[in-house]
Write the structure tokens for this entry.
Amino acid sequence: MKNINWKNVLLYIAAILLVGSLLAPLVSPPVKIPELSFSEFLNQLDTNNIKEVAIQGENISGKLKTGKEFKTRASDYPNLVPTLRDKKVNFKIEAPSESGWFWNLIIQVVAPLAFFALLWWLLMRQAQSSNAQAMSFGRSRAKPVITKQKITFKDVAGVDEAKEELKEIVEFLKTPEKFQALGARIPKGLLLVGAPGTGKTLLARAIAGEAAVPFFSISGSDFVEMFVGVGAGRVRSLFQEAKKQTPCIIFMDEIDAVGRHRGAGLGGGHDEREQTLNQLLVEMDGFDPKTNIIIIAATNRPDILDPALLRPGRFDRQVFLDKPDLKGREEILIIHSAGKPLGSDADIKILARRTPGFTGADLENLMNEAAILAARADKKEINMIELEEAVDRVLAGPEKKSRVISDNEKEIVAFHEVGHALLSKLLPKADPVHKISILPRGLALGYTLQLPLEDKHLISKEEALQDICVLMGGRVAEEMIFNEATSGAQNDLERATALAKKMVCEYGMSTLGPRTFGKKEHQIFLGRDIAEMKDYSDQTADAIDKEVQKIIEGCYNRAKTLLGQNRAKMEEIAKALREKETLVGEELEALLKDIHV
Ligand code: ADP
Ligand code: MG
Ligand code: ZN
């Protein structure tokens, strides 16, 4: 509040006075004088009880001979005056009261007017304040970031290529002359692309820490507002602000929120997001290449971005952040174990080997879970047990100790898991089994943890087939021992079918030849691919189904043969699993020895 708004104050006072004067007669009514009915009055008059009377229009007031006051009303009673004269009552006629018409006027005219005026004024005030809010919406929320804990490139591991690329950018901002002397044009925009949790936001914060220039950070969702045009206004003001503080970096996180293909989405046309995107494109083209502003954006869906954004001169460089490899995972684990006392048996190298496919965020989560588990056990340091348990937790959720499972079901689950485990040992190209457990975890009743020895980027046909065999192992074992199928294999079957379908339709690994079938269609407004475009005939569809069927059946039979040859072993391991509930490492290795391959 800068200064008092006198107009408002006056309005308040007027309103209070008005309401007060309207309420006043109600709050303090005039002294109560008993009211007589007119007939009662006439009776009193007949019996000579009235001493004096004053007539004021319809209102009659007076005194009885007893001295009591009274009042009554009469409407047009012509005999009143003669009767009063007859009875020798002292009477006088007064002019109708001034206050009467005054109050009438207020109640009938002024009050409603005042009421509407008040209402109008309130509404106006409301509108004005929300207007002011809408206006401030248009301003950008990006502020140069002042981070308390400075994040540097040292805090980011496993994404070396991306780091190199970004270091170059920082270099340019620090010494632009060096690049310009050689006629180099540094990219205007740089797009960080990577799966969720691979460290895009972290990397951007590291640049902010390293570059020593103003760093404007805004998230794509900040631009998408209820009101059309607000997002565009924000983009405009963000760039205005940035231009005042060059050299600087603008970071837009989750740019897919605004940067989707134009013309997509329900209703199509010119919606808010589209306007925002247009404004962004205009601004990116608008600034002089010599202005040292670099725009960094992050997304995990580059495929849905509007092609105009990716054109040279805009986000012309894309930097990919992969899930970390073995070495990267080790480095990330070391970063996140800082400040967490590790026991002497904790081996980060082994842990890194056991976590293929984990992103940086998963690894951070893992270290945190392990620390929580250790604290819960009142330990002073984190041991390998907690780290192992944390891996399982991140992969499959916490153990459900409370879930009660009957002995019969446990027996089935044990054989099911042993089926998977034995097959993964029997089939050399399948990922080796690391742990089996019949303790329910997450949604699963049992749990077989298979881990590849190294990061895989390619999958061969034989590997795919052996993976499907291992998935079939659970069901096959159940059927062999109990002569019955259970619903426990549902997830296995789903995954096996999906993989078989991929082999046929995407990898070209079937008798239908090396080609793909069907095209994924991105439903942009939903942000995921839900429709599959069929680019083949119904006959081919039939053939595909048959091929998938053939693969699954083949794997099923192979699993059956292999497990059949090792039935005794299967029963031995299942017995051990029933007793111990979890089998890991050497113990499991010992049991899986001398099997019939
Ligand atoms: P994204 O933005 O790609 O979804 P974030 O940058 O938000 O992922 O990562 C989430 C957290 O995961 C980070 O705060 C960090 O603790 C951890 N993290 C992710 N990637 C890495 C990495 N490469 N090195 C170290 N920590 C990482
Ligand atoms: Mg992020
Ligand atoms: Zn299974």
